[in-house]
Amino acid sequence: MKKNICIPLIFTAALSGCSTNSALINNTKTDVAASYNSINSEQLIEHIKVLSSDAFEGRAPSSKGEELTLEYLTQQLTAVGFQPGNGDSFLQAVPMVSIEASPDMTLSIGDKTYQYGHDMVMGSSRISSFEQLNNSELVFVGYGINAPEYNWNDYQGLDVKGKTVVILVNDPGFATKDPALFNGNAMTYYGRWTYKYEEASRQGAEGAIIIHETAPASYNWSVVEHSWTGPQFGFVRDDLNKGRVAVEGWVNSDVAKELFTKAGLNFEQAKAEAAKGSYHVDMGDLSASVTVKNTVKQSVSYNFIATLPGSTKPDEHILYTAHWDHLGKDTNLTGDQIYNGAVDNASGTSALIEVAEAFAKLPVAPQRSITIMAVTAEEQGLLGSKFYAANPIIPAAKTVANINMDALGVSGRSSDVSVYGLGQSELDDFLTIAAQKQGRVIAGDPRPAAGIYYRSDHFAFANIGIPALYAKSGKTPLDEATKALRAELKERLSKCYHNVCDEYSDAWDMSGAVQDIQAFFEIGHQLSKENVWPKWSKTSEFKR
Questions:
Q1: What was the pLDDT predicted at 540?
Q2: CA distances (Å), 431 to each of 220, 287, 403, 472, 514, in order?
Q3: Considering the entire predicted model, what is its pTM?
Protein backbone atom coordinates (compact mmCIF):
# COMPACT_ATOMS: atom_id res chain seq x y z
CA MET A 1 0.00 0.00 0.00
CA LYS A 2 1.28 3.46 -0.84
CA LYS A 3 2.00 5.57 2.21
CA ASN A 4 2.60 8.93 0.52
CA ILE A 5 -0.56 10.10 -1.14
CA CYS A 6 -1.36 13.41 -2.78
CA ILE A 7 -4.84 14.52 -1.75
CA PRO A 8 -6.62 17.44 -3.44
CA LEU A 9 -6.35 20.71 -1.54
CA ILE A 10 -10.05 20.66 -0.73
CA PHE A 11 -9.42 17.68 1.53
CA THR A 12 -6.49 19.26 3.38
CA ALA A 13 -7.90 22.73 3.87
CA ALA A 14 -8.06 23.75 7.51
CA LEU A 15 -11.49 23.27 9.00
CA SER A 16 -12.36 26.36 10.96
CA GLY A 17 -13.69 26.13 14.46
CA CYS A 18 -17.31 27.21 14.63
CA SER A 19 -19.65 28.13 17.41
CA THR A 20 -22.45 25.87 18.53
CA ASN A 21 -25.83 26.43 20.09
CA SER A 22 -25.35 23.56 22.54
CA ALA A 23 -25.56 24.60 26.18
CA LEU A 24 -22.48 24.33 28.34
CA ILE A 25 -22.19 21.40 30.69
CA ASN A 26 -23.73 22.41 34.00
CA ASN A 27 -21.28 22.96 36.86
CA THR A 28 -18.27 22.26 34.63
CA LYS A 29 -15.09 24.30 34.50
CA THR A 30 -14.88 26.75 31.61
CA ASP A 31 -11.89 25.05 30.02
CA VAL A 32 -13.71 21.70 29.76
CA ALA A 33 -16.85 23.45 28.50
CA ALA A 34 -14.83 25.06 25.71
CA SER A 35 -13.61 21.66 24.55
CA TYR A 36 -17.11 20.25 24.85
CA ASN A 37 -18.54 23.06 22.74
CA SER A 38 -15.78 22.80 20.13
CA ILE A 39 -17.72 19.78 18.84
CA ASN A 40 -20.10 21.30 16.31
CA SER A 41 -22.21 20.58 13.25
CA GLU A 42 -20.22 22.67 10.79
CA GLN A 43 -16.96 20.80 11.30
CA LEU A 44 -18.69 17.43 11.51
CA ILE A 45 -20.44 18.04 8.19
CA GLU A 46 -17.20 19.10 6.45
CA HIS A 47 -15.50 15.85 7.50
CA ILE A 48 -18.51 13.79 6.36
CA LYS A 49 -18.54 15.53 2.98
CA VAL A 50 -14.87 14.71 2.42
CA LEU A 51 -14.98 11.09 3.56
CA SER A 52 -18.18 10.31 1.63
CA SER A 53 -17.18 12.16 -1.53
CA ASP A 54 -16.94 10.33 -4.85
CA ALA A 55 -13.16 10.80 -4.75
CA PHE A 56 -13.02 8.27 -1.88
CA GLU A 57 -14.89 5.70 -4.01
CA GLY A 58 -16.92 4.23 -1.16
CA ARG A 59 -13.91 3.49 1.10
CA ALA A 60 -13.59 -0.23 0.35
CA PRO A 61 -10.75 -2.07 2.10
CA SER A 62 -7.52 -2.33 0.07
CA SER A 63 -8.60 0.34 -2.41
CA LYS A 64 -7.75 3.87 -3.44
CA GLY A 65 -10.52 4.93 -1.06
CA GLU A 66 -8.70 3.31 1.85
CA GLU A 67 -5.49 5.15 0.98
CA LEU A 68 -7.28 8.48 0.91
CA THR A 69 -9.16 7.75 4.13
CA LEU A 70 -6.05 6.78 6.10
CA GLU A 71 -4.16 9.79 4.80
CA TYR A 72 -7.03 12.09 5.77
CA LEU A 73 -7.20 10.64 9.28
CA THR A 74 -3.42 10.95 9.65
CA GLN A 75 -3.55 14.61 8.62
CA GLN A 76 -6.44 15.46 10.93
CA LEU A 77 -5.18 13.63 14.02
CA THR A 78 -1.60 14.84 13.58
CA ALA A 79 -2.86 18.41 13.26
CA VAL A 80 -4.49 18.28 16.70
CA GLY A 81 -1.49 16.69 18.42
CA PHE A 82 -2.34 12.99 18.57
CA GLN A 83 0.58 10.57 18.23
CA PRO A 84 0.89 7.23 16.40
CA GLY A 85 -0.86 4.54 18.42
CA ASN A 86 1.13 1.55 17.18
CA GLY A 87 4.73 2.34 18.03
CA ASP A 88 5.84 4.90 15.47
CA SER A 89 2.91 4.14 13.13
CA PHE A 90 -0.73 5.16 12.95
CA LEU A 91 -1.53 1.86 11.22
CA GLN A 92 -2.08 -1.76 12.23
CA ALA A 93 -1.86 -4.11 9.26
CA VAL A 94 -4.80 -6.49 8.88
CA PRO A 95 -3.99 -9.31 6.40
CA MET A 96 -7.13 -10.22 4.50
CA VAL A 97 -8.32 -12.09 1.48
CA SER A 98 -10.89 -10.82 -1.00
CA ILE A 99 -13.19 -13.45 -2.48
CA GLU A 100 -15.51 -12.32 -5.26
CA ALA A 101 -18.04 -14.79 -6.61
CA SER A 102 -18.90 -14.51 -10.27
CA PRO A 103 -22.55 -13.41 -10.67
CA ASP A 104 -22.76 -15.84 -13.60
CA MET A 105 -24.36 -18.61 -11.56
CA THR A 106 -27.73 -20.21 -11.00
CA LEU A 107 -29.04 -22.23 -8.09
CA SER A 108 -30.89 -25.35 -9.20
CA ILE A 109 -33.35 -26.98 -6.79
CA GLY A 110 -35.82 -29.53 -8.01
CA ASP A 111 -36.96 -28.66 -11.50
CA LYS A 112 -36.30 -24.91 -11.23
CA THR A 113 -33.32 -22.58 -11.38
CA TYR A 114 -33.02 -19.40 -9.32
CA GLN A 115 -31.24 -16.24 -10.41
CA TYR A 116 -28.33 -14.55 -8.66
CA GLY A 117 -29.31 -11.30 -7.00
CA HIS A 118 -33.03 -11.44 -7.68
CA ASP A 119 -33.81 -14.79 -6.03
CA MET A 120 -30.66 -15.76 -4.19
CA VAL A 121 -27.10 -14.78 -3.37
CA MET A 122 -24.53 -17.57 -3.08
CA GLY A 123 -20.82 -17.51 -2.39
CA SER A 124 -18.03 -19.22 -0.51
CA SER A 125 -15.73 -18.26 2.34
CA ARG A 126 -13.21 -20.87 1.24
CA ILE A 127 -10.06 -19.49 -0.32
CA SER A 128 -10.64 -21.35 -3.52
CA SER A 129 -11.34 -20.49 -7.15
CA PHE A 130 -14.06 -23.11 -7.46
CA GLU A 131 -16.65 -24.55 -5.04
CA GLN A 132 -19.94 -26.27 -5.73
CA LEU A 133 -22.94 -28.11 -4.44
CA ASN A 134 -23.84 -31.11 -6.57
CA ASN A 135 -27.29 -32.49 -5.77
CA SER A 136 -26.75 -31.72 -2.10
CA GLU A 137 -29.74 -32.90 -0.05
CA LEU A 138 -31.68 -30.12 1.70
CA VAL A 139 -32.48 -30.29 5.40
CA PHE A 140 -34.44 -27.62 7.27
CA VAL A 141 -32.76 -27.09 10.66
CA GLY A 142 -35.07 -24.42 12.08
CA TYR A 143 -32.94 -21.64 13.53
CA GLY A 144 -29.72 -23.63 13.13
CA ILE A 145 -28.82 -23.16 16.79
CA ASN A 146 -26.81 -25.34 19.17
CA ALA A 147 -27.04 -23.61 22.56
CA PRO A 148 -26.64 -25.92 25.58
CA GLU A 149 -27.32 -23.08 28.03
CA TYR A 150 -30.79 -22.73 26.50
CA ASN A 151 -31.26 -26.50 26.21
CA TRP A 152 -31.58 -26.04 22.48
CA ASN A 153 -29.97 -28.01 19.66
CA ASP A 154 -31.49 -28.00 16.20
CA TYR A 155 -28.82 -30.45 15.06
CA GLN A 156 -29.44 -33.02 17.79
CA GLY A 157 -29.32 -36.53 16.36
CA LEU A 158 -28.77 -35.19 12.86
CA ASP A 159 -25.88 -35.98 10.50
CA VAL A 160 -25.58 -33.18 7.94
CA LYS A 161 -22.32 -34.21 6.33
CA GLY A 162 -22.67 -33.75 2.56
CA LYS A 163 -26.00 -31.97 3.01
CA THR A 164 -27.14 -28.37 2.74
CA VAL A 165 -28.92 -26.90 5.74
CA VAL A 166 -31.72 -24.36 5.33
CA ILE A 167 -31.95 -21.92 8.24
CA LEU A 168 -34.28 -19.23 9.59
CA VAL A 169 -32.81 -15.83 10.40
CA ASN A 170 -32.88 -14.40 13.98
CA ASP A 171 -33.68 -16.67 16.94
CA PRO A 172 -36.80 -18.22 18.54
CA GLY A 173 -37.28 -15.37 20.99
CA PHE A 174 -38.16 -13.01 18.15
CA ALA A 175 -40.77 -15.37 16.75
CA THR A 176 -42.55 -16.06 20.04
CA LYS A 177 -41.87 -12.78 21.90
CA ASP A 178 -41.56 -15.02 24.97
CA PRO A 179 -39.19 -13.21 27.39
CA ALA A 180 -38.18 -16.57 28.86
CA LEU A 181 -37.02 -17.90 25.47
CA PHE A 182 -33.46 -16.88 24.66
CA ASN A 183 -33.59 -13.10 25.18
CA GLY A 184 -37.21 -12.60 24.16
CA ASN A 185 -37.66 -10.07 21.38
CA ALA A 186 -34.03 -8.96 21.68
CA MET A 187 -31.78 -10.91 19.34
CA THR A 188 -28.90 -12.90 20.79
CA TYR A 189 -25.72 -13.76 18.90
CA TYR A 190 -27.40 -17.05 17.99
CA GLY A 191 -29.67 -15.04 15.71
CA ARG A 192 -26.85 -13.51 13.66
CA TRP A 193 -26.10 -14.77 10.16
CA THR A 194 -22.42 -15.08 11.08
CA TYR A 195 -23.23 -17.59 13.83
CA LYS A 196 -25.49 -19.67 11.57
CA TYR A 197 -22.75 -20.21 8.98
CA GLU A 198 -20.23 -20.92 11.73
CA GLU A 199 -22.44 -23.55 13.37
CA ALA A 200 -23.35 -25.19 10.06
CA SER A 201 -19.62 -25.49 9.40
CA ARG A 202 -18.97 -26.99 12.84
CA GLN A 203 -21.70 -29.55 12.15
CA GLY A 204 -19.98 -30.61 8.92
CA ALA A 205 -22.61 -29.40 6.45
CA GLU A 206 -21.66 -28.99 2.81
CA GLY A 207 -23.81 -25.92 2.29
CA ALA A 208 -25.80 -23.41 4.34
CA ILE A 209 -28.70 -21.29 3.09
CA ILE A 210 -30.38 -18.63 5.24
CA ILE A 211 -33.97 -17.65 4.50
CA HIS A 212 -34.31 -13.88 4.33
CA GLU A 213 -37.39 -12.27 5.85
CA THR A 214 -37.40 -8.53 6.35
CA ALA A 215 -38.82 -8.34 9.89
CA PRO A 216 -36.54 -10.87 11.63
CA ALA A 217 -33.51 -9.81 9.56
CA SER A 218 -34.27 -6.12 10.27
CA TYR A 219 -33.36 -5.16 6.69
CA ASN A 220 -34.89 -5.76 3.27
CA TRP A 221 -33.69 -8.03 0.48
CA SER A 222 -31.81 -5.22 -1.29
CA VAL A 223 -29.32 -5.17 1.60
CA VAL A 224 -28.51 -8.83 0.94
CA GLU A 225 -28.29 -8.15 -2.78
CA HIS A 226 -25.85 -5.26 -2.33
CA SER A 227 -23.89 -6.36 0.75
CA TRP A 228 -23.18 -10.02 -0.06
CA THR A 229 -22.28 -9.51 -3.71
CA GLY A 230 -18.98 -8.17 -5.00
CA PRO A 231 -15.71 -8.69 -3.09
CA GLN A 232 -16.19 -10.30 0.32
CA PHE A 233 -13.29 -9.96 2.73
CA GLY A 234 -12.09 -12.46 5.30
CA PHE A 235 -9.00 -13.61 7.15
CA VAL A 236 -6.35 -15.87 5.65
CA ARG A 237 -6.28 -19.03 7.75
CA ASP A 238 -3.85 -21.93 7.61
CA ASP A 239 -6.52 -24.29 6.27
CA LEU A 240 -7.59 -21.75 3.59
CA ASN A 241 -10.98 -21.72 5.31
CA LYS A 242 -11.66 -25.34 4.31
CA GLY A 243 -13.36 -25.68 7.69
CA ARG A 244 -16.23 -23.57 6.37
CA VAL A 245 -19.12 -24.98 4.39
CA ALA A 246 -18.37 -25.11 0.66
CA VAL A 247 -21.22 -22.77 -0.28
CA GLU A 248 -23.14 -20.32 1.89
CA GLY A 249 -25.81 -17.86 0.95
CA TRP A 250 -29.35 -16.53 1.12
CA VAL A 251 -32.70 -17.05 -0.59
CA ASN A 252 -35.60 -14.63 -0.37
CA SER A 253 -38.84 -15.57 1.35
CA ASP A 254 -40.75 -16.16 -1.90
CA VAL A 255 -38.21 -18.77 -2.97
CA ALA A 256 -38.33 -20.34 0.48
CA LYS A 257 -42.12 -20.70 0.41
CA GLU A 258 -41.92 -22.31 -3.01
CA LEU A 259 -39.28 -24.78 -1.85
CA PHE A 260 -41.23 -25.79 1.25
CA THR A 261 -44.32 -26.39 -0.85
CA LYS A 262 -42.33 -28.60 -3.22
CA ALA A 263 -41.04 -30.51 -0.20
CA GLY A 264 -44.59 -31.14 0.99
CA LEU A 265 -44.18 -28.74 3.90
CA ASN A 266 -46.03 -25.61 4.94
CA PHE A 267 -43.55 -22.78 5.47
CA GLU A 268 -45.50 -21.01 8.20
CA GLN A 269 -46.20 -24.24 10.08
CA ALA A 270 -42.54 -25.25 9.86
CA LYS A 271 -41.52 -21.89 11.30
CA ALA A 272 -44.00 -22.30 14.14
CA GLU A 273 -42.62 -25.75 14.96
CA ALA A 274 -39.06 -24.45 14.82
CA ALA A 275 -39.87 -21.82 17.45
CA LYS A 276 -41.15 -24.37 19.95
CA GLY A 277 -37.88 -26.20 20.52
CA SER A 278 -35.03 -28.07 18.87
CA TYR A 279 -36.25 -28.92 15.40
CA HIS A 280 -35.21 -30.26 12.01
CA VAL A 281 -36.92 -31.98 9.10
CA ASP A 282 -35.82 -33.39 5.74
CA MET A 283 -37.07 -31.42 2.74
CA GLY A 284 -38.32 -34.43 0.80
CA ASP A 285 -36.15 -35.32 -2.16
CA LEU A 286 -35.09 -31.72 -2.85
CA SER A 287 -31.41 -31.15 -3.50
CA ALA A 288 -29.35 -28.10 -4.43
CA SER A 289 -26.78 -27.62 -7.16
CA VAL A 290 -24.73 -24.48 -7.76
CA THR A 291 -21.25 -23.68 -9.01
CA VAL A 292 -19.36 -20.79 -7.43
CA LYS A 293 -16.41 -19.41 -9.37
CA ASN A 294 -14.28 -17.11 -7.23
CA THR A 295 -11.70 -14.46 -7.93
CA VAL A 296 -9.34 -14.61 -4.96
CA LYS A 297 -6.95 -11.81 -4.03
CA GLN A 298 -4.87 -11.57 -0.88
CA SER A 299 -4.36 -8.06 0.42
CA VAL A 300 -3.62 -5.97 3.46
CA SER A 301 -5.96 -3.40 4.94
CA TYR A 302 -5.33 -1.23 7.98
CA ASN A 303 -6.79 -0.19 11.30
CA PHE A 304 -5.94 3.43 12.13
CA ILE A 305 -4.82 4.12 15.72
CA ALA A 306 -3.87 7.45 17.29
CA THR A 307 -3.24 8.31 20.94
CA LEU A 308 -3.12 11.39 23.15
CA PRO A 309 -0.87 10.15 25.98
CA GLY A 310 -2.17 10.50 29.51
CA SER A 311 -0.31 12.79 31.88
CA THR A 312 -0.06 10.41 34.86
CA LYS A 313 -1.46 7.04 33.63
CA PRO A 314 -0.44 6.79 29.99
CA ASP A 315 -0.72 2.99 30.00
CA GLU A 316 -4.46 3.16 30.79
CA HIS A 317 -6.63 4.00 27.76
CA ILE A 318 -10.13 5.24 26.96
CA LEU A 319 -10.80 3.80 23.52
CA TYR A 320 -13.08 5.48 20.95
CA THR A 321 -13.89 3.47 17.82
CA ALA A 322 -15.70 3.77 14.49
CA HIS A 323 -15.32 1.85 11.26
CA TRP A 324 -13.95 3.84 8.34
CA ASP A 325 -14.90 1.38 5.59
CA HIS A 326 -17.97 1.01 3.42
CA LEU A 327 -18.91 -1.04 0.35
CA GLY A 328 -16.74 0.65 -2.29
CA LYS A 329 -18.00 0.80 -5.86
CA ASP A 330 -19.70 -1.62 -8.22
CA THR A 331 -18.82 -1.12 -11.86
CA ASN A 332 -21.62 -3.49 -12.88
CA LEU A 333 -24.21 -0.91 -11.88
CA THR A 334 -25.76 1.48 -14.38
CA GLY A 335 -25.52 5.11 -13.36
CA ASP A 336 -24.25 5.77 -9.84
CA GLN A 337 -21.70 3.07 -8.95
CA ILE A 338 -20.35 4.41 -5.66
CA TYR A 339 -21.57 3.36 -2.22
CA ASN A 340 -20.55 6.64 -0.56
CA GLY A 341 -21.49 5.55 2.97
CA ALA A 342 -22.17 9.03 4.34
CA VAL A 343 -24.27 7.88 7.31
CA ASP A 344 -22.60 4.47 7.44
CA ASN A 345 -19.99 5.36 8.49
CA ALA A 346 -18.46 8.62 7.40
CA SER A 347 -20.53 10.06 10.25
CA GLY A 348 -18.86 7.94 12.94
CA THR A 349 -15.39 8.37 11.46
CA SER A 350 -15.90 12.13 11.43
CA ALA A 351 -17.04 11.95 15.04
CA LEU A 352 -13.68 10.40 15.95
CA ILE A 353 -11.94 13.49 14.58
CA GLU A 354 -14.25 15.77 16.56
CA VAL A 355 -13.65 13.85 19.80
CA ALA A 356 -9.90 13.92 19.26
CA GLU A 357 -9.90 17.67 18.68
CA ALA A 358 -11.99 18.26 21.80
CA PHE A 359 -9.53 16.33 23.99
CA ALA A 360 -6.56 18.04 22.34
CA LYS A 361 -8.03 21.46 23.22
CA LEU A 362 -8.08 20.72 26.94
CA PRO A 363 -5.52 22.99 28.65
CA VAL A 364 -4.55 20.10 30.94
CA ALA A 365 -3.93 16.71 29.37
CA PRO A 366 -6.15 13.87 30.58
CA GLN A 367 -4.57 11.63 33.21
CA ARG A 368 -5.36 8.52 31.22
CA SER A 369 -4.59 8.18 27.51
CA ILE A 370 -7.24 8.84 24.89
CA THR A 371 -6.99 6.49 21.93
CA ILE A 372 -8.84 6.93 18.66
CA MET A 373 -9.28 3.83 16.48
CA ALA A 374 -10.85 3.73 13.02
CA VAL A 375 -11.17 0.06 12.09
CA THR A 376 -11.39 -1.61 8.70
CA ALA A 377 -13.80 -4.14 7.19
CA GLU A 378 -16.71 -3.76 9.61
CA GLU A 379 -19.04 -4.27 6.69
CA GLN A 380 -17.41 -7.65 6.04
CA GLY A 381 -18.15 -9.06 9.51
CA LEU A 382 -16.28 -6.78 11.96
CA LEU A 383 -12.95 -8.02 10.61
CA GLY A 384 -10.80 -5.06 11.63
CA SER A 385 -12.02 -5.01 15.22
CA LYS A 386 -11.88 -8.82 15.44
CA PHE A 387 -8.26 -8.75 14.26
CA TYR A 388 -7.39 -6.08 16.80
CA ALA A 389 -9.10 -8.05 19.59
CA ALA A 390 -6.96 -11.07 18.69
CA ASN A 391 -3.83 -8.89 18.35
CA PRO A 392 -4.33 -5.99 20.76
CA ILE A 393 -1.84 -3.17 20.82
CA ILE A 394 -3.22 -2.03 24.16
CA PRO A 395 -3.78 -4.91 26.58
CA ALA A 396 -7.46 -5.47 27.36
CA ALA A 397 -6.66 -5.17 31.05
CA LYS A 398 -5.36 -1.64 30.39
CA THR A 399 -8.34 -0.56 28.28
CA VAL A 400 -10.77 1.16 30.62
CA ALA A 401 -13.72 1.33 28.23
CA ASN A 402 -14.72 1.37 24.59
CA ILE A 403 -17.13 3.94 23.15
CA ASN A 404 -18.21 3.06 19.63
CA MET A 405 -19.79 5.39 17.07
CA ASP A 406 -21.54 3.92 14.04
CA ALA A 407 -24.12 5.54 11.74
CA LEU A 408 -24.95 8.65 13.76
CA GLY A 409 -28.37 10.27 13.61
CA VAL A 410 -28.84 12.90 10.90
CA SER A 411 -32.38 14.06 11.64
CA GLY A 412 -32.11 16.42 14.57
CA ARG A 413 -32.22 16.24 18.33
CA SER A 414 -34.06 13.77 20.52
CA SER A 415 -35.27 14.03 24.08
CA ASP A 416 -33.86 10.54 24.70
CA VAL A 417 -30.75 8.48 24.03
CA SER A 418 -31.09 4.93 22.71
CA VAL A 419 -28.65 2.55 24.36
CA TYR A 420 -28.07 -0.67 22.46
CA GLY A 421 -27.41 -3.35 25.02
CA LEU A 422 -28.82 -1.27 27.87
CA GLY A 423 -27.88 -2.86 31.18
CA GLN A 424 -24.69 -4.50 29.94
CA SER A 425 -22.28 -2.39 31.99
CA GLU A 426 -21.77 0.57 34.31
CA LEU A 427 -21.03 2.75 31.28
CA ASP A 428 -24.79 3.25 31.16
CA ASP A 429 -24.49 5.20 34.42
CA PHE A 430 -21.89 7.57 32.96
CA LEU A 431 -24.05 8.12 29.89
CA THR A 432 -27.11 8.77 32.06
CA ILE A 433 -25.31 11.61 33.82
CA ALA A 434 -24.00 13.10 30.58
CA ALA A 435 -27.44 12.92 28.97
CA GLN A 436 -29.18 14.45 31.98
CA LYS A 437 -26.95 17.51 31.70
CA GLN A 438 -28.32 17.90 28.17
CA GLY A 439 -31.90 17.54 29.36
CA ARG A 440 -32.20 14.04 27.90
CA VAL A 441 -33.15 10.67 29.33
CA ILE A 442 -31.87 7.17 28.65
CA ALA A 443 -34.02 4.76 26.67
CA GLY A 444 -33.47 1.13 25.77
CA ASP A 445 -32.79 -0.43 22.41
CA PRO A 446 -35.52 0.77 19.98
CA ARG A 447 -34.94 -2.30 17.77
CA PRO A 448 -34.09 -5.18 20.11
CA ALA A 449 -34.97 -7.79 17.48
CA ALA A 450 -32.21 -6.49 15.21
CA GLY A 451 -29.45 -7.51 17.65
CA ILE A 452 -27.59 -4.25 17.07
CA TYR A 453 -25.27 -4.81 20.04
CA TYR A 454 -23.78 -7.77 18.18
CA ARG A 455 -23.49 -5.97 14.84
CA SER A 456 -20.88 -3.25 15.28
CA ASP A 457 -17.26 -3.08 16.35
CA HIS A 458 -17.78 -2.72 20.09
CA PHE A 459 -18.84 -6.39 20.06
CA ALA A 460 -15.26 -7.50 19.37
CA PHE A 461 -13.98 -5.48 22.33
CA ALA A 462 -16.75 -6.73 24.60
CA ASN A 463 -15.73 -10.27 23.70
CA ILE A 464 -12.30 -9.73 25.28
CA GLY A 465 -13.77 -8.22 28.43
CA ILE A 466 -13.65 -4.49 27.69
CA PRO A 467 -16.86 -2.71 28.78
CA ALA A 468 -18.29 -1.28 25.58
CA LEU A 469 -20.94 1.37 24.95
CA TYR A 470 -22.97 1.84 21.77
CA ALA A 471 -25.64 4.54 21.82
CA LYS A 472 -27.11 7.31 19.69
CA SER A 473 -29.96 9.82 19.62
CA GLY A 474 -33.26 8.17 20.44
CA LYS A 475 -36.61 7.92 18.72
CA THR A 476 -38.44 10.76 20.47
CA PRO A 477 -38.00 14.02 18.52
CA LEU A 478 -37.31 17.11 20.58
CA ASP A 479 -40.00 19.22 18.93
CA GLU A 480 -42.57 19.33 16.13
CA ALA A 481 -40.08 20.65 13.58
CA THR A 482 -37.79 17.70 14.24
CA LYS A 483 -40.73 15.33 14.06
CA ALA A 484 -41.62 16.72 10.63
CA LEU A 485 -38.02 16.45 9.43
CA ARG A 486 -37.86 12.81 10.49
CA ALA A 487 -41.05 12.03 8.63
CA GLU A 488 -39.53 13.66 5.55
CA LEU A 489 -36.21 11.79 5.79
CA LYS A 490 -37.43 8.40 7.04
CA GLU A 491 -38.08 6.69 3.71
CA ARG A 492 -34.90 7.94 2.08
CA LEU A 493 -32.69 6.95 5.01
CA SER A 494 -34.28 3.52 5.15
CA LYS A 495 -33.89 2.70 1.46
CA CYS A 496 -30.35 4.13 1.32
CA TYR A 497 -28.90 1.80 3.96
CA HIS A 498 -26.13 -0.09 2.12
CA ASN A 499 -27.18 1.53 -1.13
CA VAL A 500 -25.59 4.04 -3.48
CA CYS A 501 -27.89 6.81 -2.27
CA ASP A 502 -26.26 6.96 1.19
CA GLU A 503 -24.86 10.40 0.41
CA TYR A 504 -24.66 13.65 2.35
CA SER A 505 -27.76 15.85 2.08
CA ASP A 506 -28.25 19.50 2.99
CA ALA A 507 -31.59 18.40 4.45
CA TRP A 508 -29.78 16.72 7.33
CA ASP A 509 -29.80 18.21 10.82
CA MET A 510 -26.67 17.11 12.70
CA SER A 511 -27.53 18.78 16.02
CA GLY A 512 -28.55 15.47 17.58
CA ALA A 513 -25.34 13.80 16.48
CA VAL A 514 -23.39 16.69 17.98
CA GLN A 515 -25.13 16.16 21.33
CA ASP A 516 -24.26 12.47 21.19
CA ILE A 517 -20.59 13.16 20.47
CA GLN A 518 -20.49 15.74 23.26
CA ALA A 519 -21.93 13.19 25.69
CA PHE A 520 -19.36 10.60 24.58
CA PHE A 521 -16.61 13.18 25.09
CA GLU A 522 -17.84 13.90 28.61
CA ILE A 523 -17.90 10.19 29.48
CA GLY A 524 -14.32 9.78 28.28
CA HIS A 525 -13.19 12.91 30.06
CA GLN A 526 -14.72 11.72 33.31
CA LEU A 527 -13.15 8.27 32.99
CA SER A 528 -9.80 9.79 32.03
CA LYS A 529 -9.38 11.49 35.40
CA GLU A 530 -10.65 8.78 37.75
CA ASN A 531 -9.40 5.49 39.11
CA VAL A 532 -12.73 3.84 38.35
CA TRP A 533 -12.92 0.81 36.04
CA PRO A 534 -16.47 0.34 34.74
CA LYS A 535 -17.76 -3.15 35.39
CA TRP A 536 -20.01 -5.49 33.47
CA SER A 537 -23.39 -6.07 35.03
CA LYS A 538 -23.94 -9.38 36.80
CA THR A 539 -26.41 -10.46 34.11
CA SER A 540 -24.21 -9.61 31.13
CA GLU A 541 -23.02 -12.51 28.99
CA PHE A 542 -19.70 -10.68 28.68
CA LYS A 543 -18.98 -10.66 32.42
CA ARG A 544 -17.38 -14.10 32.27
A1: 85
A2: 32, 52, 11, 11, 15
A3: 0.80
